[in-house]
Amino acid sequence: MVTKAYFVLVVAVALQRMLEVRVSRLNEAELKARGALEHAQEQMPVMVAVHTAWLVCIFLEVGLLDRPFRGGLAFFSLVVFCAGQVLRLLAIHALGTRWTVKVITLPRESPVTGGVFRYLRHPNYVGVILEIAALPLIHGAWLTAVVFSVLNGLLLSRRIRAEEQALQASSDYAERFADRPRLWPKLGGPTSDADPSSEQ
């Protein structure tokens, strides 16, 4: 049985995703007015379907399979989920109006290298990875966590490849991020060549 607190949390995540889509559309309109280009359009329906099914399957697994709420697992998973939220919010903040859920680039404008992007190329995707795995586990929905982590991994492998190719073709992305890891930070702190005021 789905606990009331968990139900509220999952619904809040769904509402958050809807709000992010709204913000993304506003940013997208502004970027395209400045000459931005959209890439990998065929990936968006798949990404929307995966994230929607993920939220639905959380409720189905917890409710139909009667997954128990276990305090220790719930606490650990909640911490991981919150870490994912923090990473995504830091990435959105660093990108500002350059942030969209679609792959959109501004030709001849340098990528964002400040904020959390000093440490990683794709902190937002690390956040998504953590959220996809952790949110179901808060209420013991391990099957949803495993299945959608795999699906998300396959989706992100294509998404990251398309995004990096687009950025390399339209900016000095390859040079600025040459020594920065894609998803997991290096020990020893951030690189020193980043300009916190530069954009993506």
Notable features of this structure?
Four Helix Bundle (Hemerythrin (Met), subunit A), 200 residues, disordered C terminus, mainly alpha, two-stranded antiparallel sheet
Quaternary structure type: single chain
How many separate helices? Answer: 6
- Give a count of the beta strands, DSSP E runs of length 2 or more: 2
| Main β-sheet description | 2 strands, antiparallel
What order do the strands of the largest sheet run in, or round the barrel if closed? 1-2
- Give the fraction of residues assigned to helices: 55-70%
- What fraction of residues sit in β-strands? under 5%
Q: Just give the CATH class.
A: Mainly Alpha
N-to-C CA distance: 44 Å
CATH topology, what is it called?
Four Helix Bundle (Hemerythrin (Met), subunit A)
Global structural class: mainly alpha
Element order: H for helix, E for strand: HEHHEHHH
Mean pLDDT: 89
Q: How many domains in all?
A: 1
What's the CATH architecture name? Up-down Bundle
User: Which word captures the global form?
Assistant: elongated
- Low-confidence stretches are 190-200
Radius of gyration: 18 Å
